[in-house]
Write the C-alpha cells for this entry.
Amino acid sequence: MNNKIAIFPGSFDPPTNGHLNIIIRALNLFPKIMVAVTNNLNKNHWFSLEERINFLEEITKNLKNVQILSFSGLLANYVKEKKIFIIIRGLRIVSDFEYELQMATINKKLNNDIETIFLIPDYSYSFLTSALIRELALLESDISNFIPKCIEKELKERAFLIKKKNLKVCKK
Ligand code: ADP
C-alpha cells in the first residue's frame, strides 16, 4: 500500500483557483499528488476530458510532484488498482458536507483501506464551484480572480459558442 501518494479526484470542468489551492495545500502534506479527472459519460461537460487534462497540466506545470490522469468507473476500484488509499477532497461551504460525508462513507464501505482527507480552501474560494464559474462566463462577468489566466480565455470562448448554439435552438 502506498501511503505517500494521495489522489485528488474530480470533474474539473474547468479547473479553478479553488482546485489549485487544494492541490498546493495537499502538496504540503504529501510528497506526490495524483489529480484524477473523471471520465464520466453521463455528465454534460463543457470541456472534453482531453481539454480538462490539458488545463490541469498547464496550471500545475511549475509544481513538482503533481501527476494528472483520468479514470472512469468507480473511484474505490480505481484507487485499489493504483494501490493508493488516500483521497483528497475540498470542503467548501457547509452544503458540501452532506455529499462528501456520503461519498467518504460509501468509499470506506467499498474499500476499508481508503481514508478521505478534507482540506479547506482559502476563504476567498470557499464559494467557488466550476458550475458557478461557467454561469458567470455565460453572463460575461469578470472571472479573472477565480480562474487561472490560461483557462479564462478558453472559458469565455466556450461560453460564447454555447450561447450562440442556444440562440439557434430558441429561434427554431
Ligand atoms: P465534483 O464534480 O466531484 O464535485 P469538482 O471538480 O467540482 O468535482 O471538484 C473536485 C474536488 O475539488 C471536490 O473535492 C471539490 O470539493 C473540490 N473543489 C472544487 N472547487 C473547490 C473550491 N473552490 N475550494 C475547495 N475545493 C474545491
Remarks:
- The two ends are 57 Å apart (CA to CA).
